[in-house]
Amino acid sequence: MASVDTKEFLDPRVLSRLLSLSLEARGPMEGTVSGRHQSPHRGSSVEFAEYRKYVPGDDVRHLDWRVYARTDRFYMKEFEADTNLRCYLVLDASGSMNYHAAHGTKFAYARKLAAALAYLAMHQGDAVGLACCSAELIRDIPPRRNASHLQNIYRVLAETTPSGTTGLVAGLHQIAERIRRRAMVLVFSDLFADPEEVLKCFQHLRFRKHDVAVFHLLDPTEVEFRFDRPTRFVDLEDGCTVLVEPSLIREQYQRALQQYLDRLRDGCRENRVDYRLVTLDREVEQVLADFLLARMRR
Amino acid sequence: MVFLQPWMLWGLALVVVPVLIHLLNRLRYRSLDWAAMSFLLSASRQAQRSARIRHWLVLACRAGAIAMMMLAMARPLVGGWLGGMLRGPPDSIVLLVDRSPSMEGQAPSSVQSKRQVALARFKEALRALGGAAQVTLVNTATRETQELLGGVDLSKLSATGLSDAATDWPAVCEAALDHVQATGSGRAEIWIASDLQASDWRATDARWERLRARLATMPQEVRIRVLALREAGGPNLAIRVVEVLRQGSELLLTCELDGPSEPPPTAGTVPVALVLDGARSVWTVSYRGGRLRWQQHVALPSGQDGAGWGWVELPADGNIADNVSYFAYPALVPVRSVVVSDEPGGAVARVLQLAAAPSPLLNRSARVVTPHEVTATLLSEAALVQWHSAEPAPRALEDFVKAGGFVLRWPAGQGRAGEWTVTWWNRGDDVLADGRDGVPLAVDELEVRQRVDLTDEGATLATMSDGAPLWQRRLVGGLPGWYECATLPVRAWSNLGEGPVLVPVVQRLAVRGAQRLGGVQRATVGEVTGIGAEESWVSVADGTAVNGVPMRACVYRVSGRLVALNRPASEDEPGALAESELRAVFEPARVWWFDEAVEADSGAVSEVWWWFWLALVGLLLVESVLTMGGWRAFMERGAATSAGRVAEGVTA
């Protein structure tokens, strides 16, 4: 299999600088092998967790004989279990992600973020999966941790072209239902959908005890809406058009956008979703560094 | 409003530029693929109404700013009088300034009369036009036209000075139209300044019909501008000498005082000065508003047998032009009467002769003649003709009345028998008026047994019990010198021949008729006919001579006669034309109407280009505020810009 050309979305210099950071989960993860993330189960790591009374059937190898010597009672010594995490990268591949301005498309930006995070996760031994959501869930790669899998992910990222109406809401619900174990779900989207429906997805994921982080991608022109002459706007998703004088509706547009952003931010805070509003004029490296450092500080 | 550079107004077409730019911009829209469509649609829905209003306001501000700039560059002039002249000056202007006495009214706080205010307005307007139009003045008293050259002072022209003649507006307007038609200029305007006195305008005059027809068919456009000076001046009283009768060495002056009925004057008395042959005396007249007529006996100096003159005068008030009335009294001449009868020796002729020349009185004579003996010579010396003949009155008799003589016509032939008494007669005026001491004539004692029916043509002076007139007076040639009686002064007809009524009536008529023989005449300014139109009129007051009939009231000596020339009585009548009535008079010509206040200085003309620049700046400011999304955004941006400049300064 030919290697994928990753020059478009993967910068080795950025990766080399980010390698000193690690992708940390905000809660215990359920992995398949030993790793660097806390597991909800007791395990055999060197980190002591607690004592508990012996019950028949327990592995006698974990009895603390010193305590028995002092107290003449059997206590089991338990240790924290370390495991790897399974990271799901969910990319919105709807037509709206194809919006193109001075900083490129939102999908291209999302691809850079996802590729870098996939590399970092894979580098620290975690399993990485990928889902690209459009009107229907179009591409879904289950998480794996071998190096060749990373090439698969990059290939899908390179081959995916955003189009059609958004399928993010349905896609996230599907993912929430499908992933059995606790995992990290990283969403890259402009979230142009009903905010209540989007928040329900996040709630669903959180209900399944997944660690959810959202990179809300917006182009600066979408935020500022500074156009100086009459413009016919063509919807990237369904092709409908509207002709407006931007200067006349700028105020109302910005007000509507701000209400939407406030609602999303509040909803994410209530559901303990790591929400990050990212405008495309920010450097990818800076966005990732902020994200990783914030997670490491927890 | 008028513009000194009206061609700049073509630039007003540029107001469409912002609209065109707007439309072109809309046509030149760009297409943009867009993701956040839901917010766009929501914002578009929300902003649709307010944004559209704001958008049109911005557009209006821009168009308005251009309009203001162009209007300012056209150098506008304002002044109430020139208001509405948006198309620039006309090619020719005809000025009609009312010079009648009523135009001399002035407000208490003003030193200018209506006529002077009108002249000032016209002067300012003509100065503002700067010689752009050919200006002609029509003398409203004489209807003569006069071309006005640039820089001429209107107020110093004799043709705009005070005149005591009424303005015959139909004739004046016809003269103005004649001039416009004769010059054949392109666009003409007739500027009229008048107090719109109804008696001068004569809105029902048939000449207006002709004038309207001419206006409708004139090839060039004629506009009428009316400067209406209808505002009532200060408190004003007018005085007139209605009649002067010489009775030997005494004058009987019948005077009238005219003033407003409402509100009633506070003063109960009015001082009236009498100047008689240079000697001045003052009467005090009780006055309670409205019209007051009274008779005043004035003793003449002893030995004064010749004709003389004088005037009555009121103190200065709201209109000084109606405060003086002149009169001339005749020389002491024999009072000759003629009785014309088919039966010169009959009873009727004898009674009539006796009534005209009672034997105890001196200076009276009466001659009885047949109708065929009436000659022009006989009439020229007579004061009164009593016509008692079945033959129709000759034409010469009407001329006799027009010349100032009096005719009393009696019934001839058979009358209708019956019994009637007199139920009403005019005690206040005319020949049946009460005596000098207030004692009425014994008209109510008359018993009529036979009578004829008078035609209903004249003014009734007495009526009988069945309502039929007993005495009548009618006008001949505008003069009230023709009297008629329905019965005869003989026993078979009535008891009129007993004397208490007949003699005073005949004597009063004879005395009145004798006035013309005394070398004096009364005339009205502007209505003089048949007297010295080509002769020199010498004012007896200051000795100045005027060639032709003068337009100022005074006593003049013309060909050895004294002529008392006074303003028309109609000038003292209140009542002004309403705006709608005046517009109807000139229909279909377009009338620009302007009500001028005598006191205010609202009609002053001044350049007001800076108003438009100010409006331009205001519109641009509003446009900026609207474009930046409201006043708050505008202020915030201004503050941010200032802060930025400060920061730059600190950095530097």
Percent range for helical residues of chain B?
A: 25-40%
For the record, the CATH architecture of the largest domain in chain A stands as 3-Layer(aba) Sandwich
What is the CATH T-level topology of the largest domain in chain B? Answer: Rossmann fold
Helix-strand pattern of chain A: HEHEEEEHEEHHEHEHEEHEH
Principal-axes geometry of chain A comes out as elongated
Q: Average pLDDT of chain B, to the nearest integer?
A: 83
Quaternary structure annotation: heterodimer
Domain tally of chain B: 4
- In the CATH hierarchy, the architecture of the largest domain in chain B is 3-Layer(aba) Sandwich
Distance between the termini of chain B: 54 Å
CATH class of the largest domain in chain A: Alpha Beta
What is the makeup of the main sheet of chain A? 6 strands, mixed
Largest sheet strand order of chain B: 17-16-18-19-24-23-22-20-21
Give the termini separation of chain A: 40 Å
Strand order of the largest sheet of chain A: 7-6-3-8-9-12
The count of DSSP E runs of length 2 or more, i.e. the number of strands of chain A, is 12
Instruction: Please summarize the sheet with the most strands of chain B.
Output: 9 strands, mixed
